[in-house]
Amino acid sequence: MAQRGLDALLICTEPEVRYFTGFHTLFWLSPTRPWFVIIPRAGKPVAVIPSIGRSSMAETWIDDIRTWSSPAPEDDGVTLLVETLREIAGRSAGSIGVPMGPETHVRMPAGDFDQLRRDLTGHDFVDATDIVSKLRMIKSEAEIAKVAYICSVVSDAFEGLPQLVSVGDTERQAFAKFRIDILQRGADDVPYLVGSTGLGGFDDIIKTPTDRTIGEGDILLFDTGSVHDGYFSDFDRNFAFGHADDSAKRAYETVWQSTEAGFAAAVPGATTTDVWKAMADVLDAGGSLGNSVGRMGHGLGMQVTEWPSNTATDNTVIEPGMVLTLEPGLTWAPGRMMVHEENIVVREDGAHYLSRRAAPELPIIT
């Protein structure tokens, strides 16, 4: 912040507030109340929050907690926030950083944000995305341990899946069984579980379950972001029921080998684009008809997807401490997709798996 000339950093989204304070609650699911934390150039953060959150915030390391009674649509914390920012950033002028770039948003009504800037005329609001993203991309050992734990839980659940679901289950039943199993094995929550079933394959990898009945020859994809102590896993597995044709098996082997190439390329000093190209080359050689997903992996941590993205143009330099997903996907026939995903941590000596490596051949549930 000093190097950038920032007097204050204003954050107002759940992962950023939790990252800097430790404030962890599901109350963010309600869109009614805004929450703010101000980080001064020197000293501890200051929380400006609805009074309902004072007790929980007081359990963190934050001791300057300023509250108002919310909801109050006529002035939902704006006046208190303006007063606090003037105190920290300067009465009449100052530079206030706010994350404004990709994968960020301002979690307060647009009209209130406009009012905030009008009330702070003379202060500059500048984009501070790079400051926050750089911090969060490099994980501490404690953060890595949390991701490793939930990856182990979900790996166990995927390995037990053939004994859990079968032909005759509906998608809703299969999804429910899998979610319950993950919870019973030690996850705190399974907020993200998508997938598909289809005879010989499918063309949608982000569906929620339907009443469709699973039959012989179907292929199943489960992709889950499960949580332990606020940190996510995010990987998928594919299964066939009864049998699979040779083209589906080849597609599976192609994305598996593509993941191997991405894993080998994920070393300190390489870029996310290098990782993308290593995976893309294998997919192209395997007869891919295209990849419409837009990227082949991303950062992972307090959110199921974080910075950076493995794309042809991202070019983020990989550093030790990054936790990433490798997610090659291909269209291997019209209306047929195959996606594979693993979770890794990058160390000084290269990549290490956090998820337990998938089988090299398409698993068949009999």
What does this structure look like?
With 366 residues, the chain is of the alpha+beta class. It folds into 2 domains: 8-136, Creatinase/prolidase N-terminal domain (Creatine Amidinohydrolase, Chain A, domain 1, 3-Layer(aba) Sandwich); 138-365, Creatinase/methionine aminopeptidase superfamily (Creatine Amidinohydrolase, Alpha-Beta Complex). It contains 9 helices and 18 strands. It has helices spanning 14-21, 54-58, 78-89, 110-119, 129-137, 141-160, 171-185, 246-265, 272-285, and strands at 8-11, 36-40, 46-50, 65-68, 94-98, 123-127, 189-199, 218-228, 231-232, 235-241, 298-299, 306-309, 323-326, 329-333, 336-339, 342-347, 350-353, 364-365. Strands 4-3-2-1-5-6 form a 6-stranded mixed β-sheet, with helices on both faces. Strand 8 (218-228) and strand 9 form a beta hairpin. The longest helix has 20 residues, at 141-160. The chain is elongated.
Explain the layout of strands and helices.
Blueprint: E1 8-11, H1 14-21, E2 36-40, E3 46-50, H2 54-58, E4 65-68, H3 78-89, E5 94-98, H4 110-119, E6 123-127, H5 129-137, H6 141-160, H7 171-185, E7 189-199, E8 218-228, E9 231-232, E10 235-241, H8 246-265, H9 272-285, E11 298-299, E12 306-309, E13 323-326, E14 329-333, E15 336-339, E16 342-347, E17 350-353, E18 364-365
Helix pairs in contact: 3-4, 6-7, 8-9
